[in-house]
Amino acid sequence: MHMLNFINSLILFLPSLAPTAALPASGPDPPVQSRPPSGTVDHLNAYCQMSLWQHGPGQGASWTGWPLSFSSDPKAGFNVDANLNNQCVNLFELNPSGLAGELSSYIVTGWCECEFFARVECLEGLFTAYNRRDNSLWDRKGVDNRIQSYRCWYTQHEQDFNWCTITWQGVEPNSFKMINGRKQVVWDKGPRWQDVIDRGRIGVCRSIPDREAEEWQAISSVVINGCTCNFYSDEGCQGDGLGSFGNAGNTIVKDSFSPLFFEKGIRSYMCFYPVGLSETPRTDYDIAGHPGMPPEVNF
């Protein structure tokens, strides 16, 4: 699939998701007993999303939905419902057909943390989950087939973040050749550089070096370690953007068809505390644990 088509299927952009103020992460239950809306989830963005299964993923009784939202429609923004923040929810209320006391797998993603309990009304805590999944709770002694309730609260886990890195590989045109009857550009490697994002740069728009001044024309790959970033075709991080990538681990964004975002070109980007499931460990630590260059991506 061409990268630009792939981008269109990716996650919603984080600036429109972040609420203006964080909700409290603890405290008594609010007086209004709301219940989270069920709906389709993708576990790819900053919305708090949850999937629960009686057996393995997609097996048995299930529930998927938005634990902190008053609506499952992402067009409403982050749409945090204060009545759901830190609100206890019993599993039998979500699905009376086999979840309570039989839960064996789950996924929790987005800017929220959830605690699971062995008794109704959130008594006898078992564990908490933040951007985490477990497909086989039966491997965890004392947890499988015990969960009766949960509560979630809004958080970005800022305390766990120190820095993240964005590593760029630029390319420049060398010549042209015919491939399958079409004239294609032959690209050479251009400059490779890294940006380090600390807490003070979270949510701050950054421009990449001027393409003409640096004598390069496009980006062939971006390696993101430890955060989630939006990319834009203008210099002010405005508009619909080009895509959003990254999590707490290592993410390589590469276009196998032509240099990344060649048709529009990356002009700016903005990074946030990481969301989503981390499939690959970070690759940007040097021997002393400081920011280091990750391995080069095959060109």
Quaternary class? single chain
Helix content: under 10%
- Summing up helix and strand content along with how strands pair, one would put the structural category as mainly beta
Total number of helical segments?
Answer: 2
Tell me the name of the CATH homologous superfamily of the largest domain. Answer: Crystallins
User: How many β-strands, per DSSP?
Assistant: 16
Characterize the overall form: elongated
What is the CATH-assigned architecture of the largest domain? Sandwich
Poorly predicted runs are: 1-32
How would you portray this structure in words?
With 299 residues, the chain is mostly beta strands. The chain folds into two domains: 3-12 and 160-272, no CATH class; 25-155, Crystallins (Gamma-B Crystallin, domain 1, Sandwich), CATH 2.60.20.10. Helices cover 3% and strands 34% of the residues. The protein is built from two helices and 16 strands. It has helices at residues 3-8, 91-94; strands at residues 49-53, 62-65, 88-90, 105-109, 112-119, 123-129, 132-134, 149-154, 163-179, 182-198, 206-207, 218-225, 228-232, 243-245, 250-254, 268-272. A four-stranded antiparallel β-sheet has the order 2-1-4-7, with no helix packed on it. The chain has a four-stranded antiparallel β-sheet with strand order 3-8-5-6. The chain has a four-stranded antiparallel β-sheet with strand order 10-9-12-15, with no helix packed on it. The longest helix is centred in the N-terminal third of the chain and has 6 residues, at 3-8. The radius of gyration is 22 Å and the shape is elongated. The two termini are 18 Å apart. Residues 1-32 have low confidence and may be disordered. Residues 1-22 form the signal peptide. This is Cyanovirin-N domain-containing protein. Keywords: Signal. It comes from Arthrobotrys flagrans.
